[in-house]
Write a structure and sequence with these properties.
There is one protein chain. The protein is mainly α. It is built from 21 helices and five strands. A five-stranded parallel beta sheet has the order 3-2-1-4-5, with helices on both faces. The protein is globular. The relative contact order is 0.11. The structure holds flavin-adenine dinucleotide. Flavin-adenine dinucleotide binds next to helix 10, helix 12, helix 15 and helix 17.
Length: about 475
């Protein structure tokens, strides 16, 4: 009789889960376990809500589909796994690999420890299309720029058929915590609206994908930038928690492309967005300090102001710039913000308020349901200008022009900043500018702009000029 543990981490699904599949194929008894390891795995406030519901869904699915009992434990993974190995005669431990620096270090230690004692540790790629060390440029080093990276990845992109678990291993009775005792959901009424927008778990992920392909894949390339349309997939939290594998997404898109009416340009553009996710993990693997340190070291001299009262106004969506405030309020209410608006609010924080990108990244990590160390730090560094393949320093988003271009009818602003809803389409983007709006505008509690964008822009450019000279000398 051989028994194995499947240690589930950021792969909270049954379908296309190589560690689970291989364990079920090779052992008669399986113990699937989730270990709450707050020391090694960052868990933001909003994501704690997601994790609770995702684990609940996985426990039910494992029980109903495979007759297995998911075990919950909290603490240090090595000691928890060692205790199970010692008391339950475990022959092997299976997991899908993680790519965050702490996870890599932890997994290496655990693997070495068990190999000494003759327990097999078997790991797989369950979360990326290409693992970071498999993609190199011609000189054998890593790519720093997205386009050639993704071009190389596309040549490697050959989806194979999904493997179905056909063996039915037996479950083992093991002591477990309960999810209720972990008390993960926020105590504030913060998460109250989240269930209106999200269904954590594998089923919710599959529904999102199906719905996206049926309703939004066509036209994705042009509509993905319009926040009021919500025309993107909303798969990011599902992908972060591994409720769907990126390969399942690619297979579904490739299948959709077989339809003669498919909008192929949009389909390929959508795949390239998955490519940005891959590239973020790739960069994090090759530059493990990315969440804390500027990739371009000349930015170490940037004179951040870090005015904490301005940071608070940004967090609360009270900057007086309607598109910025709409984004920050969408984030608070739904645990999500549209990508175009993420770029606008991040540019506003770093190049308008001169607040260090790491303070913005921290707020996102705590409030986003898709908070992801790789995607978040790569994106913040990209906007701030200090990343590997960053937006050039002179690309400073003008929040009013961006608003006029991407929310021309003000629908997104009206939804999240209802006190401005009576303003007309011309005035809603910069209400302080028009004398006609004075009456409505001043009757609300909506603030005056906390900075003058043009002045801030000039200041930012002068700071960057100094940085460049530091770099050259
Ligand atoms: P879709 O347009 O449907 O894209 C499909 C998938 O591709 C996404 O689910 C996501 O996994 C990936 N993707 C899309 N755009 C990007 C991108 N620019 N970078 C990396 N992957 C991408 N994304 C996160 O998943 N977690 C984060 O913590 C995060 N922080 C960000 C911070 C800033 C400042 C910015 C500008 C972007 C950030 N992003 C982050 C990237 C992007 O905004 C989200 O992935 C996207 O908005 C998710 O919505 P969607 O699933 O509908 O995307």
């Amino acid at each position: 009789m051989s028994r194995a543990i499947v240690w589930l981490r950021q792969d909270l699904r049954i379908a296309d889960n190589p560690a689970l599949f291989e364990a079920c194929s090779n052992h008669e008894e399986i113990i699937p376990i989730y270990i709450l390891d707050k020391k090694n795995n960052f868990l933001g406030g909003a994501q704690a809500w997601w994790l609770h519901h995702s684990l609940f869904a996985l426990k039910n699915a494992l029980s109903q589909q495979l007759g297995l009992t998911l075990i919950f434990r909290k603490g240090e993974p090595l000691s928890i796994l060692s205790e199970l190995v010692d008391t339950l005669s475990i022959k092997a431990i299976y997991w899908n690999r993680g790519y965050e620096p702490q996870s890599i270090a932890r997994d290496k230690t655990i693997k070495a420890k068990f190999q000494e004692t003759g327990v097999d540790v078997v790991s797989f790629n369950g979360n990326l299309l290409n693992e970071p060390w498999t993609v190199n440029n011609k000189s054998g080093t890593f790519f720093k720029v997205f386009t050639p990276y993704w071009k190389t990845c596309l040549q490697l992109l050959q989806p194979t058929a999904e493997k179905q678990i056909t063996h039915r291993p037996r479950s083992v009775a093991v002591e477990s915590d309960t999810l209720q005792n972990w008390d993960l959901s926020p105590h504030l009424d913060w998460a109250a609206q989240f269930p209106d927008f999200w269904t954590p778990g594998e089923e919710g992920a599959q529904q999102r994908l199906n719905n996206f392909i049926a309703q939004h894949l066509h036209g994705y390339k042009s509509l993905r930038d319009i926040p009021a349309k919500q025309a993107t997939s909303h798969l990011s939290p599902h992908l972060h928690f591994g409720e769907i594998s990126p390969w399942s997404v690619v297979r579904a898109i490739e299948y959709a492309k077989l339809d003669p009416h498919c909008d192929l340009i949009s389909a390929d553009h959508f795949l390239s967005e998955l490519g940005w996710r891959e590239f973020s993990y790739y960069l994090l693997y090759h530059v493990p300090s990315m969440p804390e340190k500027n990739i371009k070291s000349e930015f170490d001299h940037f004179p951040w102001h870090n005015d904490l009262s301005l940071l608070k106004r940004w967090q609360k969506g009270m900057t007086g710039y309607p598109i910025v405030d709409a984004g920050m309020r969408e984030l608070w209410a739904t645990g999500y913000m549209h990508n175009r608006v993420r770029m606008i609010v991040a540019s506003f924080l770093t190049k308008g308020l001169f607040i260090d990108w790491r303070l913005g990244a921290d707020w996102f990590l705590d409030t986003l349901l898709d908070a992801d160390l790789a995607n978040n730090s790569a994106s913040w560094q990209w906007v701030a200008g200090c990343g590997a393949d960053a937006a050039p320093y002179f690309r400073i988003f003008n929040p009013v022009l961006q608003s006029q271009k991407f929310d021309p009818h003000g629908d997104y602003i009206r939804r999240w900043v209802p006190e401005l809803s009576a303003l007309n389409n011309d005035n809603i983007h910069a209400p302080w500018e028009s004398s006609k709006t004075t009456l409505v505008y001043h009757k609300t509690n909506y603030p005056q702009p906390i900075i003058n964008h043009n002045e801030a822009r000039a200041k930012a450019l002068s700071y960057y000029k100094n940085l460049k000279s530091i770099h050259i000398t």
